[in-house]
Design brief:
Length: 125
């Protein structure tokens, strides 16, 4: 009986679990929801407040390097992420990759920021 109850609860939780994505907007807004549909310029997201359409141009861009387990290095901006996957907009296309498929991500800063960091390190070392 316990086995049947456990199996039922596991099945229900698996069916009800959602892959929530987090979107950070240029104005500081943070939108969490499930992607319903997508076209070239808009994401349609189901949130706790209802269905929201997000212009892709309004999403905050931050460039990252993703070091994949197979040796590939992807460079692009992180569009959205969840507990299990991340959406990357690279020059060669848009990728939805699972978090277990890469082992390292590094933000890409401008040269000015790197020089500032090196200066601070040089002073304190």
């Amino acid at each position: 009986m316990k086995y049947i109850l456990f199996s039922f609860l596991f099945l229900v939780s698996a069916l009800l679990s959602e892959n929530l994505q987090t979107f950070k907007m240029e104005d500081g807004t943070k939108i969490i929801g499930t992607i319903i549909s997508e076209n070239d310029s808009v994401f349609e997201i189901e949130t706790s407040l209802g269905i929201v359409q997000i212009e892709k141009g309004d999403i905050k861009k931050s460039n990252w390097k993703f070091y994949m387990n197979d040796g590939t290095i992807l460079v692009g901006s992180r569009v959205a992420n969840s507990e299990t996957e991340v959406i990357i907009d690279a020059d060669i296309g848009v990728f939805k990759i699972q978090k277990e498929d890469y082992y390292l991500t590094i933000p890409i800063f401008s040269d000015r920021i790197y020089l500032g960091i090196m200066f601070v390190i040089a002073i304190f070392i």
